Amino acid sequence: MELKNKSLFEIKDLIDGGSVSSVEVTKYFLDRIEKFDSDLNSFIQVNPKALDEAKAADDKIKSGQKGRLLGLPVGIKDLLCTKDLQTTAASKMLEGFIPPYSATVVERLKQEGAIVLGKLNLDEFAMGSSNENSYFGSVKNPWNLEFVPGGSSGGSAAAVAAGLAPVTIGTDTGGSIRQPASFCGVVGVKPTYGRVSRYGIVAFASSLDQAGPLSRTVKDGALISEVISGFDQWDSTTSEREVPQWSASISGDLKGKKVGIVKEYMEAKLHKDVEAQLKRAIDSLKEAGAEIVEVSLPLSRMAIPVYYMVATSEASSNLARYDGVRYGYRASFEDRPAESVEEFYCRTRGEGFGSEVKRRIMLGTYALSSGYYDAYYKKAGQIRRLLAEEFNEAFKKADVLIGPVTATPPFKLGDRISDPLEMYLNDIFTTSANLAGIPGMSVPMGFSEQGLPIGVQLMSAAYSEQVMFDAGQAVEERANISTRLPDGY
Amino acid sequence: MRGKRLKKEQIFRRGYQMATKRWEPVIGLEVHAQLATESKMFSSDSTTFAAGDNENSSPVSLGLPGALPVVNRKAVELSVKMGLALNCSIRNVSRFARKNYFYPDLPKGYQISQFDEPLCEEGFVEFFVDGERKKIRIERAHMEEDAGKSIHHGGHTLINLNRAGVPLLEIVSGPDLRSPQEAAEYARTIRQILRYLEVCDGNLEEGSMRCDCNVSVREVGTEKFGTKVELKNINSFRFVEKALEYEIQRQIDCKESGEEIIQETRLYDSTKNKTFSMRSKENAHDYRYFVDPDLLPVRVEKDWIGKIRATLPELPVARSDRFRSEYELPQYDALVLTQEKELADYFEHAAKKSMQPKAASNWIMTELLRMLNDQKIDIQNSPISSDHLAELVLMIDQKEISGKMAKQVFQEMWKTSKSPKELVKSLGLSQITDEAEIQKIVDKVVSGNESQLADYRSGKTKLYGFFVGQAMKESQGQANPEILNRLLKKKLDS
Fold first, then answer.
1. Hey, which residues does A201 pair with through a beta bridge?
2. Element (H, E) at A79
3. Eight-state DSSP code of residue B169
4. The domain that contains A103 carries what CATH number?
5. C-beta atoms of A320 and B71 within 8 A
6. CA within 20 to 30 Å of B402's CA: A25, A426, B242, B332, which one?
7. Distances (CA, A) of B434 to B67, B431, B471, B483
8. CB of B158 within 8 Å of any CB in chain A?
9. Which pLDDT belongs to residue A198?
10. What ipTM is given for this predicted complex?
């Protein structure tokens, strides 16, 4: 049975109808990982107990138990703690680390019966836009192995695109779900900040991080978002608001809805292929009945500097715990003992972290230093609040905003890795949603002339995800590429 | 040896007194009090002191990847309570901030504390030093988590994270203290209030209360503060006084010899009674404080503050003031009796029941406290209950027993925990107040000593004492002295 390009809902129907078992589904995807992932490198580790979990799920199915994801395999970005299963954040620092507990997101997926397929590759500590910063090697874009899959959730995006998993979990701090989703031609959802518990997710920038799904269809993304959202007593930044059943009410009919085109995004220098796909997407929304209006977000041009101040500052503090004292990598002091505690730290952290991580720790440490705090971190916070205000204003005029995910289609491996600033500019259209705490998603629209995927970004007001999913559905219906797989897969 | 040491101390003290005529110390204290919660500041780990090594360390205490803090509501409540007792204003919205520094027993590489938006601000506390009332400003009181403990062991360092995350309230005084004695008294007062409120057990040995001192000196009469030095590692009130005395003298010596005082942190070594430089300002940490993005602002609604305020007991200074006015106690008694809430409760109960406050106070301050201190027993566990003490005081007042007998009864009460009435009966100690019975004794003594009677009546009135002694002996000491005197005099002079 061909499952590789089926949606989660389709596979769920097959399992529920008894035409396929969870073990068969799980084995199918494990076999594909075995077959294709040596080239792609999207998984850091498969779950050795995946088939056991699938067997247990089949028993539950037989005994009539229910679960929204019962028997369905899910891939997890290796930034989320999984009990008894190695969690590395793609860093030498955490190689071999086996958490004694699971992230709330993982717990919730399991509670609904999901099978953990394995742990997906990423940029080290989720820092990067190309997945070239992984200690476990770069992930390749399945549409063309010479190209990057995007990052930091590159493994999560590539695995869905190549049909190695029907759905995966990623995390998004400044675009880390949406950008790789766009580069790999899959759907990627960053929920409203506060919807999804961060408990058990290796923290990058606490005020920005949010986990979300990467999937073949918008409806699948909506379902996974429902499952992982909701108040968690272990994360005080989660909201107590009720989580609507987005997937059940999803509709591509946008009659009476207003879609905002962001003036500043349209004026930005976009690659012609990106521009063409964005225009097609706007047309599809019109066709679906939406009224198109223009909105303005003048401060969005500040998003990159503000984001890199906030994210690196928080990261410099969040990553302080990786010191080799209690767990994780510790430099060898056998031949040359440390002469001071400082030396212990310097050697351990110097050897354990990759260069991009160290760069960001240094940037953040600098921005928080006394004498610089006011000019950098504090100012960034002020602009961040004003930017959120601008979004509030925009959402008075429009129900949902549409824009590009990135300015260019996917780029080649090695092209930008030597120029961090150019790499950071990848996030120009995605970071605003994180700074404002609003939901955003990337939906595949089409392909570049070189045959690489291009997605479009949709954003809605905080806690108003339904209209975003509806607009995504409208785009998806007209793009009509959700079942397409790259050649050879 | 002891004599020599004493002499050295006397010389030091004399020198200190001389020096502080010209130089004035300016002292501020930071008291860290462990909040009496069952679980830690940001996790459900237990705070019990006696747990096995690293037993109380969940992913949060260990700083595992992805572990997040959640605020302990009880810790906030206790902090508000203490803030109110210190006359502070309580912020309706306060924030937690991260204080970033590396140390092996600091699991996250930062301590969660409060920085520019603390829970409690701008209060004051009152207490007495040598009978003089002092009012010291409280700059702030903020919540924070404790670090773990490093144990250096040969070439290794062992880390115990049981303390990591234990909730603390850091109480910062204004730079208002002017002598080591005043500073120590301030610290004792803070402890007293913490214990009154049951916010902290104040146990210094177990580290549930710690103290850092900021101290500088300036010429008497000048306004500008001198360069301040922070003293750390002080774990008793006596050492607060000692460390400050040493440090003030050191700073005065520097000033007088024209040496510059460096802004630095110094450690107090109690065995050497000296302070040592730990780190100078140049090497001071840049803590890179910023609001902790893992935690929401702490919102303390007015209603809640009102509810907490309603639970505040009468505080020691107010209570001692009241004891002076209501029970007409001397200041000294009032201060001693209000040192501990339980002691004050004990006294007040006995005072009311016996309606003899001064007598009750005397019994407590002399006999009871001496016994309790000797045997290191808390007032709560006193073998003599407040009821029984009141009963004893009442029996003396009503002349059922003499003061001398009462002391004997008191000893028996201590040993047996029985009521004085019961003891007096079983020991046959009750006073004879029946006049007819005493008259019999008087008659017997007078008629049995005819020659002495003749001498007395012929003018040797000194013999009166002899008759009293004989009569008392006859009554086995149980005759009421007043009645005995009256009847004896009457008989002799008839």
1. A80
2. none
3. E
4. 3.90.1300.10
5. no
6. B332
7. 81, 9, 14, 9
8. no
9. 98
10. 0.95
